[in-house]
Design a protein that fits this description.
One of its GO terms (cellular component) is plasma membrane. The protein folds into 3 domains: 100 residues, Orthogonal Bundle (Recoverin, domain 1), CATH 1.10.238; 130 residues, Topoisomerase, domain 3, CATH 1.10.268; 208 residues, Rossmann fold (3-Layer(aba) Sandwich), CATH 3.40.50.300. The protein is α/β, with parallel strands linked by helices.
Length: 544
Amino acid sequence: MEIGQHPASGYSKEHQKTYQEWFAFADSDGDGRITGPDAIKFFAMSKLPRADLKKVWAIADSKRQGYLGFSEFVTAMQLVSLAQAENEITQDSLKRNDLGSLNPPAMDDLDALLAKSKHHTKRVDPDIDGFPQAQSPATSQWFSSKSSKKIPLTAVTSVIDGLKKLYIEKLKPLEVSYKFNDFVSPLLTNSDFDAKPMVMLLGQYSTGKTTFIKHLLRTSYPGAHIGPEPTTDRFVVVMSGPDERTIPGNTIAVQADMPFSGLTTFGTAFLSKFECSQMPHPLLEHITFVDTPGVLSGEKQRTQRSYDFTGVTSWFAAKCDLILLLFDPHKLDISDEFKRVIGSLRGHDDKIRVVLNKADQVDTQQLMRVYGALMWSLGKVLNTPEVARVYIGSFNDKPVNESAVGPIGKELFEREQDDLLADLKDIPKKACDRRINEFVKRARAAKIHAHIIGHLKKEMPAMMGKAKAQQRLIDNLENEFAKVQREQHLPAGDFPYVEHFRDVLGGYSIDKFEKIKPKMVQAVDDMLGYDIPELLKNFRNPYE
């Protein structure tokens, strides 16, 4: 199965009509989402044991979003059919069986209930592919609303909705009060929560980043340039769209439905080197790729870029689900700029994968030496005790150069390629877990930030000598961080970079900051300790 391809396909028009009617009936509030309580009522008609229905839900909601859209609902129904025919229910059940000849399951009393509710039934309109559109709740209004009124719990129909609610009610007030958006990361918008998982490719020029994306898509994308010289001179986001086109950076950064509004902080110099490439493609329905300019080496890196390159890669790293560092056998040296870029990925080590590309350009003996040299170079830059996972292969559309690597090398490359594709296939499934992970990380960072600002404010004199006191605090920032850490019992590894914090703090008057508000900090503590676990409990498998 291709990455992102949904198994629920291959059914007739007649079956599609049946499933649409059933979906509209099961979806009690008409929002295009079947949540746990809806599913329990509807699936009970199948008369399957609870253990089977637990497996059905787990496979259909593989992304762990806490609800079933139409395609997931069809997957569930097909699994119910297989279970009623006494087939085993596993992840591979749908691949092994002929879905075209699979009839909808037998559902007790459903026809009678449908006939009764016929005059109310909401018909869900299919989109181009014949799938009904799930109208996700109008959560964008939660972000635009000026009032901070509570969002009703009934409006929350998925884990991501729950995170949005918690962000607006508990975390955002803390971020705004202590200018977290200026120091660490821009405020989140609705599209930041709803964005598709992203994969960023980093590497020196001509290591095959653009070719790698083309290889996965099996076609070129609008605005792709390939050559031995540094050809990609801009950040290109390759994403799904109705037609093939490129959109300039300034336009994409102001679109409310795109998660790139935070990039405006890097200015026009960067936005003119940023573009979005859209095209219809099944893989892009599930994953967005970020192609980056080749990292420069030697004299070229001294001719400064007109924008903060490492700042931009760091911004994308926080948003991405996977970061691929590409090397080729002839470019193993890690330049100063590449070193800074890898340094800017601090805190995202779990997302980094290393790819030794174009490995069929050297023979087996040379490949062993190249691999050893690469690990040695990485060991000096990646400050982790663990060994980074390195995928070796030739990720392009040409057949492997067997004359150089021999039959063993060819088999190795194929297995490595399968491993990397398996890693990419897992991304959409883990996207929801990743969102929760990033949200918790952000909440902890915001809490530490508030404590630092509150402490600095407390150290300021009430009347005289404010300028001197501010300068003293900025100069001794490292010691002030240590004081906050001791007083609040916070982990040292979660504190921000002193240099960066010092630079931003220089533009502010510490005296103008607000004092620490224990109530606000407590709200974030409650959110981390109680609300998020409760949210996950509410949207887990309803049969658990």
